[in-house]
Amino acid sequence: MITGHTKLYGIVANPIAHVKTPEEMNNHFASVGYDGALVPFHVLPENLAQFMDMLRGLQNFGGLIVTVPHKTDVLALCDGTVGDAAAIGAVNTIRRDPDGRLIGAMLDGKGFVSGLEVNGIDVAGMDACLLGAGGAGAAIAFALAEAGVANLTIVNRSEDKARNLAERVMAKYPSVRVAPGAPETARRDLIVNATSLGLRADDALPLSDLAFHGKQIVAEAIMEPEVTPLLAAAREAGARIHFGRPMLRQQIRLMARHMGVTDTTDA
Description:
This protein is an alpha/beta fold and about 270 residues long. The protein has helices spanning about 20-30, 50-55, 85-90, 110-120, 135-145, 160-170, 230-235, 245-260, and strands at about 5-15, 35-40, 60-65, 80, 95, 100-105, 125-130, 150-155, 175-180, 190-195, 215-220, 240. The chain has 8 helices and 12 strands.
């Protein structure tokens, strides 16, 4: 029941109809007994700055979740950031403070690693391959390094972009070997798809080297379809697969915490 006391939250995207966060976050609010409601906002890139300015003046607005294509552009529109957001170069969650300041965080990567952990996967010491160096890829790269992977190879169509990300990750986590390169699928402990390839039925696979095997894990950041062509190929070859949905479920808790909503697990 929404009343005059209900705290409002939003998710901004372009397009917006595919997002699953409103159901997940509103279920989370209900599960912790919090009087809040999250709604979708369809905002075009050219209107993003005006939209963000409007949020500063909404006294009953608690925070905003940001997704494609706004994660990078919204960074410059925040009044401050926490964690690795500035180094990553993107934001996916924003808290509105009582004075109207908008404080951004990037939780894609932390949600992804937490999703692995709740399924019994510890990435420490692994040789990992990350497909994609965009916003989600950058966040996952930083989170994998923070979680202690021994080696991280970043595969991207633009090698310069992969190299730039590798350099930024190594500057923050110098004990991790990070470099652009090829998938070299057979040698990896963990392969992560952080590209958008797999969202559509006619998408190409995000890599051509399909030498998957039973001693590795192949993971997705894509949530729908649940079984992407990449995961289907990996499963057929005997690899352990990890779906994208746990990333969202873990992010929900982290996002809510950043926006000031806590539950008993945060105590």
